[in-house]
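Hi Y.,

Following your request, here is the sequence exactly as I used it, all 140 residues.
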Amino acid sequence: MRSLDDIRDEYLFLEGDERYRLLIELGRELEAMPDPLKTDATRVAGCSASVWVYPVPRDDGALHFLADSNAAITKGIVALVLAGVQDRPAAEVATLDIAALLDPFDLKNQLSSNRTQGVPNMMGLIKEHAARIAKSRPSA
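Below is the corresponding structure, written out as tokens. Let me know if you'd prefer a different format.
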């Protein structure tokens, strides 16, 4: 997965439809999420498209997320969000201001409200998963 900084640099260089193409490309690069993980429990509420997010705790305390969407641009937005949180410690993800990480992409002005309405819910679900997992891990 590309770093959020690398994605931002490319995104800011592009305009209009090129930005949509970049988002679609990012979505295609997402690690495959097995279909059995796509359940009501992993589905993000409030998204116009179906979006699923599943946290995989690693032994070192970091979280690796699997995610998917049934809409190409939405899947790209999912990949963008994951680029900001992927493989970070659960405790860090739980307190991370994910929205601030995405501010340079100005998604609300670049995409329709229909495409971005579930993004805060996805960020909230990621932070909830991270907080729960961080709390369940014994302190080192």
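The helical segments are 4-13, 16-29, 72-85, 90-95, 98-102, 107-110, 113-116, 119-136.

Thanks again,
Q.
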